[in-house]
Amino acid sequence: MSLTEKFVDKIYHATPDGEAIECAKLGVLDYLTSSYAGKDDAGVHKLLKLIELEGGFQVSPIIGQGRKSTPLQSALVNGFLAHALDFDDVHTEVRGHPSAVLLSTLLALASTNDVTGKRFLEAYVVGVEVMARIARAVKDSHYEKGWHNTGTIGVLAAALAGGYMLQFSRDQLAQALGFAATQSSGLRCHFGTETKPLHAGLAARAAVLSVNLTMVNFVNNSNSFDGKGNYFEVYGEGTENYSSTLLDGWNDSWKIASPGLWFKIYPFCSAAYFGADAALRIGKLNVEDIQEIIITFSNNTDAALIHHNPKTGEQGRFSIEYIVSLILQGQPLEFKQFEGSPIDSVSQTIINKTVRQNVKEPSTVPRYTKVKIVFKNGDMIEETSTTPKGSPNNKVTKQEIIEKCKSILKNEELEEKWMESIFTLNDATDLSDLLCLI
Length: 438
Prior knowledge:
One of its GO terms (molecular function) is lyase activity. By secondary structure, the protein is of the alpha+beta class. The protein folds into two domains: 3-265 and 395-437, 2-methylcitrate dehydratase PrpD (Orthogonal Bundle), CATH 1.10.4100; 270-385, CATH 3.30.1330.120. It is 51% helix and 8% strand. Strand 5 (369-375) and strand 6 (380-385) form a beta hairpin.
């Protein structure tokens, strides 16, 4: 058997356990919450205008909009919605955002196919597993070259999750993978613009298309992980045997549970959470007293934070300099701080005093970010964070995710309906209730 055949065989026989299913329910709740938070984003309205011009058969709901569209359109818009404010979950092994792509794909497909709640949740679990394993196989160099894993890897995982949900054969799974692999895209140079969350929408739409092409027996090379020019040769380092990373340990444990999804409490890139946590321990300071701010990252873990001197709050989602400047001023880390408005003069002054550096550490050293404040009088303060809230070793609880949902919805009746539908989803014979609620 080829590597592709072995991989899809693992997916075909995947049987997620109860712990993974419970984690998946929390992922669905957080996904819908994050999407609802972004429902009024300017980019959403641009996409809605686009699909109005396209027209089409209106069967798939668009979250928070009270309207439907075609499955391809809903995958695009919901993927964007989920990721619009960078408030959606991440996964440390993926180095990207699984749920924005996976759930947007699965909901779009479920709107036109008979799917039980249990199979939907299982497919989500499988999708996270696939995304994490492929991300580990292409290694960090894939991301550090400038690829956005949410798009490049998310499309593969979502297509395979969709195929699993619809009970594809092994051959069909391999075909869906092939269509997804040839649509793999997303560049990190777009971080801090509307195109960054668009990557999630484009990946979800491409995944739905991959599943649909498979269903009408469109033809491709069904061995995308094998031979010259295969996915790993093009997108990875191209010299290693990826078999163990892709194939070992299926059904033993699940990536959605361990290390688990990282649910966010702030609307900015998770790579900044470590530095934000360290700065919060320092707290508000008199800006005039500061001589220099030195922020140290271990092992290039600031790669996603591409804006050293952001011009807007939107770019500031990917700027540790801006986020630390807000904290040192005592400003709240709220949505309004990360919109398209220009950076204020006080924040700019602090940013100008900030130096960023990286330190190469052995793999045994836990990931960290250190924030050091040097004062004009020679005094210094230093704090280091290795476990910010939400990260795998300091997880957000179920109740905290529920509170996050309540803070966004602000509608008791809708909150209760969401909780009832999501937390009993594994017993649902179909997804009609959930699809009606979003």
